[in-house]
Amino acid sequence: MSGADLHLPQMRRLGETKRKDAWWIQPTLVFLGFSAFIVYSTWAALQGAHFYFGGAAGANYLSPFYSPLLFEVPGRAVTGHSWFGAAPDWLLRMWPSFIPFSPALLILWAPGGFRFTCYYYRGAYYKAFWADPISCAVGEPGFRGEKYRGERRFPLIIQNIHRYFLYLAVGFIGLLAWDAVQAFRFTGADGSRHLGVGVGTLVLCINPVLLGAYTFGCHSLRHLIGGRKDCISDCSAARAGAYRGVTCLNRRHMLFAWLSLFWVGFTDFYVRMCSTGYITDLRLI
Amino acid sequence: MPDATFRITTGRGESAAFKDYTTHITEGMVVLDAVHQIQAESAPTLACRWNCKAGKCGSCSAEINGKPRLMCMTRLDTLDLSVPVTVEPMRAFPHIKDLVTDVSWNFEVKKRIRKFKPRAPDAPDGTWRMRQEDVDRVQEFRKCIECFLCQDVCHVLRDHHKHAEFAGPRHFVYTAALEMHPLDTENRLEHLKDSAGLGYCNITKCCTKVCPEHITITDNAIIPLKERVVDEFYDPLTRLFRIFRPSK
Ligand code: SF4
Ligand code: SF4
Ligand code: FES
Ligand code: FES
User: Fold this and answer.
1) Which of A3, A16, A66, B153 could be A139's S-S partner, Cβ–Cβ 3.0 to 4.6 Å?
2) CB A234 to CB B131 under 8 A?
3) How far, in whole angstroms, is CA A91 from its chain's centroid?
């Protein structure tokens, strides 16, 4: 492709622009929002404690950062949510001594990887964290210049793995929906199980709904459902309908990316606050 | 109504610089009107390209207060006239003079995209049948007026000067219109990946923001094309499936 010999205007320096609006607000907000989530979620994942709340009322809330719970944490009350019971010795032996054992670290790579490789998040953090570009029609750091590689070569070419994270993420929605159902199950003082609803139940129910609205608006899913075909209508009516549905959510992908991100963090926060006793979970039914 | 000052790029090459022009503003004026008025009143040699004054020819692209926009569609009552309004030529193309740039690189790029290749006609009279829903998807891309504002704002061209390796959002829209067309049988994926440099796009959506035709360039053209490229070149599972079941 010709073009190497074009006489182009000189590249601008970082932040140089003739824009008069407050172009820096959006990248700043995105930077602060993502940073806050990363800091909180890392801290919460490293705790290895207070991710489950039973309390005097016998609630059954599991933090989404710790779901699926593969192993119980040694030395802590058994939650009954773990898939494989107590943590095996070999795992505890392998665990680095400078961080407490936390089952969250065994699973968070999947939803984390899903969001990290999401098309919306990519565009947003390339801007807010790497200033590439920091905002539209605003100059970039000079060192990148013509050395820019984009997602064309290593390392960012790996972003193309996104669809595999999608397959995992769909599974996670099922697991979190199951946790929401479990949050209706209260245990009485005598050990009997009964249906109940606390504020935490509602918090845990909203979580998979928002995550679903985010995940089912995924660009890779849209491609899988119909984007890869030139004739969507040739296929079954179900496929055409599903394509329309995914497209509808896809238009609001950014909105649900933020809402679900906030809510998953808030759900952990709520369970944590209940478990540490800072909040009393209000029983509604 | 008041007077307003326009800070316009004038001259060519190294000597190009901003010059202030003040002119009288009346209701309903757009930036292109002001430029024309300035030409008539005080700068008869001021060069600017325009044609329709209706946002349909794509000729009057410029950068107004730093944002790539059509001069004929930017109403003055949407701008702050208490300070000078800057009007510059596009930055992603070679400058010719004043507000005019040389956009011919775009036409060279377009020539390299494989043409529409329809399947054999569906009916004996040489016609085809398509479902509305399938055509709707590519219809959006056909609204493009080739203003090249998306090319101008795209940092891959503007800030990284990848003109030799990157076709730019306008040409991804064009390719998407052909590639997703229900009658088309051509395959442009290798071209997209290699010579058109689709991977350089880091989906930061500036092109979508500036498009005067409101084409959802990134979400509806570029990302779906990226996904098709992943199918063809990067996803081991789809490649495996294709061995057993040849694709469309
Ligand atoms: S989304 Fe891609 S093509 Fe559009 S402006 Fe950004 S980098 Fe350029
Ligand atoms: S896609 Fe939009 S911005 Fe780009 S050339 Fe076409 S009309 Fe202009
Ligand atoms: S594109 Fe955002 S989740 Fe897949
Ligand atoms: S003059 Fe035709 S688009 Fe502005």
Assistant:
1) A16
2) yes
3) 26
